[in-house]
Amino acid sequence: MLNRYDSTPAGAPGRLESAVETLRKHSDYTLIEQKPATDEQVLRAHTQNLVEGVKRDSHLSKMAFLAAGGAILAGEIATKGEPAFGLIRPPGHHASMDSHWGFCYFNNISVSLLHLRAMGLIDSAFILDFDLHEGDGNINILGDDKRFVIYNPDGDGDKRYLADAKRALDESPDVDIIVASAGFDQYIDDWGSNLSTDAFHRLGLLMNDFAQERCDGRRYALLEGGYNYKDLGKNILAFCEGLRGK
Ligand SMILES: [Zn+2]
């Protein structure tokens, strides 16, 4: 699912195109379109004040509700045991209940998880935030609830980073679903100058292994950062291949 928008690095023209083109060419992937989220769905994660503020800009509002709707759709697909990737923008992990920054407006992860819980589809989740930047919004909205485990791995280079992510997953209590705040700005040729394309593949595989062993294959991911437009498609595909166990 996809939506286009805005002038920040997270929404700039060209950012999603390489990913759309890469995935469109691949016969194992189906691009589907989402409906916008409803006010009720967004208000599970945010204050009325924040939602009203976003609505003041009609173009931004349209895109933010579409991104949150894409997150919900990806989460719903995942509850059936099918992997899904939300190719959405604006991103969401820096959006807190009543404030937002870092190119984020609505917290897509939180809107989707709280929707799935309200529908009785899940009660608990592991949130693997592998963006270069810790998702303070995820922590603000979900962090006080012990049924949500949030982890932002750390480590120099593929080996240390992946070992840290694996340790956190191994130490996790059982949960109903795993979701990634999937940022690709740790990439070696992006802001973080740290991870290879293969590392994103391995992160996908780690999530798939976790999901198969611990939560009936329920796994999905939502796009957060990643500013090397040329390689973003390649890195997203590598991650998605891992996420589906390939
Ligand atoms: Zn980031």
The tally of domains stands at 1
Tell me about the largest β-sheet: 5 strands, parallel
Q: How many individual β-strands?
A: 5
Structural class: alpha/beta
Count of alpha/pi helices: 9
Helix-strand layout with pairing:
Layout: H1 17-24, H2 39-42, H3 48-55, H4 58-78, E1 84-86, H5 108-118, E2 125-129, H6 136-142, E3 148-151, H7 157-171, E4 178-182, H8 197-214, E5 219-223, H9 229-243
Parallel strand pairs: 1-5, 2-3, 2-4, 4-5
Helix pairs in contact: 1-9, 4-5, 7-8, 8-9
This protein binds zinc ion.
The site of zinc ion has 6 residues, from loops.
Key traits:
246 residues, alpha/beta, Arginase, Chain A, 5-stranded parallel sheet, 9 helices, 9% strand, globular, binds zinc ion
In short:
With 246 residues, this protein is of the alpha/beta class. It has helices at residues 17-24, 39-42, 48-55, 58-78, 108-118, 136-142, 157-171, 197-214, 229-243, and strands at residues 84-86, 125-129, 148-151, 178-182, 219-223. The protein contains 9 helices and 5 strands, in the order ααααβαβαβαβαβα.
How would you portray this structure in words?
The protein has a single domain, classed as Arginase, Chain A. It is built from 9 helices and 5 strands; from the N terminus they run ααααβαβαβαβαβα. It has helices at 17-24, 39-42, 48-55, 58-78, 108-118, 136-142, 157-171, 197-214, 229-243, and strands at 84-86, 125-129, 148-151, 178-182, 219-223. α1 (17-24) crosses α9 (229-243) and α7 packs parallel to α8. The structure holds zinc ion (ZN). Residues 131-133, 183, 185, 225 line the site of zinc ion. Zinc ion binds at residues 131-133, 183, 185, 225.
